[in-house]
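Please review this one:
***
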Amino acid sequence: MLFGKEHVKRYQETDGEVGHEWEKGTTTLILTTTGRKSGEQRSTPLIYRPYGDDVLVVASKGGSDSPPLWYLNIQADPEVRVQVKGDRYAARARTATAEEKPEMWRRMAEVWPDYDEYQTKTDREIPVVVLERV
């Protein structure tokens, strides 16, 4: 299965024809952040779900005790680029509030049930991230 740099490359080259549909019927987007230390653009494929006018992703890192690097990057600079299939746009990333998170988490766990298992693996509260089109 594609994931990582090759996934990003093929997704971008084909406007998501290769890579948008992923494992277990899920769909992925490409999130591009600015490296908090390097200042370089970093692109990551992530499972997503539309949520009204926004898009949701989860900073799970498979239940690791440390957050994914892309999440650290958005904390330093929330201005990101998103690609969903051929739709490329600027967005602002933010962590879901405590009030928002339960419903958003439920919606994400519907498309990737492993998120619930990931949360049991760590004491870190796994964030849901809202990508708001700018």
